[in-house]
Amino acid sequence: MNTNSSKTAVLIPGDGIGPEVTAAVKRVLEKAGSEIQWVEHNAGIAALDQGKDVLPQETTDAVLEHGIALKGPCTTPVGKGFSSVNVQMRKKLHLYAAVRPVRSLPGVKTRYENIDLVIIRENTEGLYSGVENEITPGTVMSMKVATEKGCTRIADYAFDYCQKRGRKKVTAFHKANIMKLTDGMFLNCAQKVHDEKYPAVNYDTLIIDAACMKMVQNPGQFDMLLMENLYGDVVSDLCAGLVGGLGVVPGANIGLEHAVFEAVHGSAPDIAGKGIANPLALLMSSVMMLNYLSDTRNCANSKQTAQKIKHAYNQTLADGCKTGDLGGELSTEQFADAVIDRLNG
Fold this sequence. Notes:
Layout: E1 8-12, H1 18-31, E2 37-40, H2 45-48, H3 57-66, E3 68-71, H4 85-92, E4 97-103, E5 116-122, E6 126-136, E7 139-145, H5 148-165, E8 169-174, H6 182-197, E9 202-207, H7 208-217, E10 224-227, H8 229-243, E11 250-254, E12 259-263, H9 280-297, H10 302-318, H11 332-341
């Protein structure tokens, strides 16, 4: 990683609505006083359109060099075509921890109030390892992969996060009653990490089907959720539905030396180019990125800038200024303008 360029980050606009929401977020960051210098690279369909691979080596190399990236959504074909850009990037950069904070927002009314969850998802193993084979014609197999190293490091990340952030409890979701080896290893590693390093952290476990029932009954009973890859993907989107959808939830992919912050929603090609996409998820992800820069690179103004932006978008929503997906009428750029107007408020 290039430690001499502490204020430089890679920008991956993505495709579909990606370039639109990325441009809006860049503008907010600039007006908020961010000193980040962007190095732009492509991935996804945007890269294919330039005659490159879906995840060009130059894009991966740039993240390796600069250590950090902000990424817009990239299209993933369903049931055919190229493999997910996100999955490829997480594997190549060893971004083993997906962090998804989910909280209620002012002005965004849902059936639940005061939601404040953090989902920690193992990001490189499980069924998303991509080990699939055709056994015989008409019979295929997908293999779930778990390693002691992978299970241990994600558990350590979750307990450390809980302890440092002053959270209340970690709950591991699992299906170890059926998948006794893979999910059994996940639970055993988590228990060992807890007992040996974080005994003061409140920790419990739940079978995932029962956990999902409890989640929709009363999400307030949960604080931090720890789970393997597939469960984390599904449950984090379920939790997003508790607070207004994927358009209001940020995401981070963290490794030992590199981090990619991204909008967790899709590329929405049906509305691309219309200027109506909600840039909030990517803006919230950029706030996570600024806090990460402050914590890991001692960037003096990053945390202050993050707090300023967070206050501004909270106030924007509280004032009823919203895009169409949240019941408002603002365009992508108008929402960015509304946030900018409140930066110094």
